[in-house]
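--- STAGE predict ---
source: upstream dedup step, 1 unique chain passed
mode: sequence only
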Amino acid sequence: MKQIEQMIKKARKAQAIYETHFDQDDVDATIKLAARAIFDNAEELARLTVEETEMGVYADKVSKNKNKSKGVWNNLKGKISMGILGIDEKTGLIEIAKPIGVVAGITPMTNPVVTPMSKIIFALKTKNAIIISPHPKAKKCSGLAVKKILEAIAPMEVPDGMVQVIEEPTLEKTQELMRLCDVVVATGGMPMVKSAYSSGKPSFGVGAGNVQVILDRNIDYELAAGKVVTGRSFDNGIICSGEQSFIYPKEDRLAVLEAFRKAGAYIATEEEREKFINAIFEDGHTSRDVVGQTAQMIANKAGINIPEDTRVIVVEAHGVGKDDPISKEKMCPVMGAFPYQFFDEALEIAQTNLALEGNGHTAGIHSNSQANIIKAGTDLSVSRLIVNAICATTAGGSIQNGLPVTNTLGCGSWGNNSISENFTYKHLLNITRIAPLSARIHIPTDEEIWSL
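--- STAGE serialize ---
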């Protein structure tokens, strides 16, 4: 793979120059231009993405391009990413940030614009070079996104080779890139993430999503249903952090389902249930032809007529976890509905579904009880619990919720990932710690150490 070797060589040369010639102000000015490039070209990039991948919703992709670009920039501006990060007054410990080198950015067809954007910005923020390897079925829109960024940062005289993209990606080229780089950041399907972790290089990957949403008692069901339906329908359900199932109080079934109907959901009848399930799943997995498609397309495949304005199809569950396929991730605007009698049962349903698929990723809760919110966060094996908000658009970070804005969501050991947080610039830093002995620290006697 001579092409990849040459790209790596070019990247290393550029990175060495960028590291020594760009200060914090230069770096921040550069990443602002990179983010603004996606913001300013959101419509063109969204249009090409829909045309090329044949999935998702144009308006949602425009929104995603704009919100993620400004969110990433807002999240990173003013943050120190080089030199001395801090000095501990008590211990005298000094932390010095240093780049890793060359990043391999593996990006998916589900988010082929904002994912390379965020990885490029994180790399530039930390003085790392980056080579993007896009999904073969999204190479045009990913390539255009990189091109727009390169054009935007040109006035900063960023060395040629700091940001590159494989224009004709293949599995073999991606594997060679992972073998030769210094760190891998893989966002995409589980086989690709597994390959990244097997590359022999430090790697950051993601886990499968299957977001379970608990509706607590004594809430506004219409308000909650509106948020859940918006999240499930966003970009036709291809967002890994999008709501997959809602778990509701059994005694309020009619009120809850009516709230979902008002929000634009079609509630499948018992006679239609199996038809929808057979249309969605093939060999236990989401059928390729429904991924990122509309509710109308899915209904047509199932041979069922639904209103034209339907945003989401709701299928009531007959079992939990492996006992019903509706418990699994569905990369289309279809949701499972699960009743519960006690809050502990709601948690058990959510955890059982997560154990089947989506362990470590994200869950949501709509509740007015801080005790129940904390209990859900304590009991569920997820890296993030979204509270009274749209999971699809806030789990990857929001200006309002404190999570770093990203498109790579770590799922911890639950999801076979190395981190259980949102991947951001800090994960692309090596840190040297200068550790002197401090006279300010009292050395305790043995008696003091062992005493209560």
